[in-house]
Write the structure tokens for this entry.
Amino acid sequence: MRRLSYLFIVVIIVSSLLLAGYSPDLLSLIVVGGMCIISVLGSIYCLAPVISFTNGLRNGQENIAQAASSEGNSAWIAAFQIDRFFRQKRLDLLFQEYREKVRQQRDSGLIVSDLDDSMNEDVLGLYSWQSVAAQIPGVMTGLGILGTFIGLLMGLQGVSFTTVDAALNSVENILSGINTAFYTSIAGVILSILFNIANNILRNVMNREMSLFLEEFHKTIIPTTEEQSRYSDRRESRQIVELLERLPKRSTMVGAAAGRPSGNEQILMPQILDGLKRNEFVFFLQPRYELNTRKVIGAEALVRWNHPALGVISPAVFIPVLEGNGYITKLDQYIWEKVCQQVRIWINGGLHPVPVSVNVTKTDVLAMDVADFFLDMLKKYRIPPKYLEIDISEHAYLEAYGVLTDVVARLQQAGFRVILDGFNGDYIKLSSVGQMSTDQLKLDLRSEGLDGKPEALPPVFEQAKTLHLNLLAEGIESMEQLTMLRKCGCTEGQGYFFSQPLSVQEFEKMLKVGQNR
């Protein structure tokens, strides 16, 4: 294929040289010579880079296979250790820039970008003068037409029929002009067609190789968002544990109930339990919006550890530890009550609350009477149930369905809105355990089947309409996702595109601004 690609260039250059060599006169030679120069320059600066990029992308596909088969390292690490990944100068420079960008993103704990943000068809088109190449056939056709007009004008110049000799000379000049006009126009058409065919074929091949490369890179090399999140969480957890080890020991309340923890848990548990005692755990609120008007219509309470020395600590650090030993229920009850207290504070202060959703896990459902707890909170803080929504994780729904059926029915009967959280669009998996009795499903756009795939949303919403289910979206991070959600008829959603989780004070300010308009 590589030889065939270069054959296109050889054919164009040889054809232009032959057409120039067989020019019938000086004018034809000048015009066709101009076409010859354009063909050579176009082949060097427009077509040759396309062939080079195509070969580099094939080399990249070979290196993906090599990285995937490497032992001892992940494909991601192995790929980044290859110095000349494409063995093509421009592609390797772009890949080096991408690697540096990824390094910075990983150091800062961000989800890394896909390679196609830095290397795609548009980028390669820019470096192979795609816009210029598209104009070359038209330029050569235009030169041929220009030669036609000049040839005809020169043929008609000095036409005279006053004598027989003058008439013969005039006819000879006209025929010569016609010959020039015909030759230059034909040469322009031939070269423009050859160049256009070569340019289209070579670029289509390059674009195909780019698509194949990116598909393999994304499937084989780059970790999924979930994998990257787990990696980031583990790294953050290690960093926090190291910092906690260096801090002076605080009084603890571990006692016999905590057992004999090991590893990270041995360091974290005393700090976590002491933090609960000192009211260091707080909740942030991520606003939920009406997607068409962007009005705040609710919020989700998300737990954070406000450590006096280390600042705000992500739940990814302490939630796994608490889930592992059952203490997650103690933390959840603590946060649920704090939310109820805050709703009462808003009501007493004259601020009209919006519904706040709290998260319920499988451990909560199996370890306690969730419905009784929330009913007690309603009585204790005298708050209407419409201001408190119950987010039950899909994991709990799938693994504790038998227990949840009664819990959900009692919560709904009391006036709570119950939401299934973390839904990924798989209706078959949900329906396999029984009828879905929740009021709403929270579709997670960060789940593997939907992450970065707005085109996957319409079938999910069409199925929801068929099943008479109400969906809201979480994890909205781009305008493209928002646009597609609106087209699908989704009216509620939350995500970093609108707002990150806010402190209670920041959220209050947002509510006051909205209610004072």
